[in-house]
Amino acid sequence: MMSLFAMLVTALPDADAATFWMPESASTVAPQVDGLFDFINIICYIFFVLISGVTIWFGVKYRQRKGQHTFESGPTHNMALEITWTAIPTIIVLVMFVLGMRVFLDMRLAPGNAYDINVTAQKWSWTFQHPEFAVTESAELTVPANRPVRLLMGSQDVLHSLFIPAFRVKQDVVPGRYTSLWFEATRPGTYQLYCAEYCGKDHSKMLATVHVLEWDEFQAKMGKLAREYEDIPEAQLPFYAITRLYNRCASCHSLDGSSGTGPSFKGLWDRTTAGTTVFTDGTTMANLMQPGGAFEIPENYIRSSLMQPQQQIVQGYTGAMPSFQGQLKERQIDALVLMLKHLDKLVDEQGNILENPSLGGEASEEGATDDDG
Ligand code: CUA
Question: Which atom of ligand 1 is nearest to the CA of 160?
Answer without folding.
Answer: 1
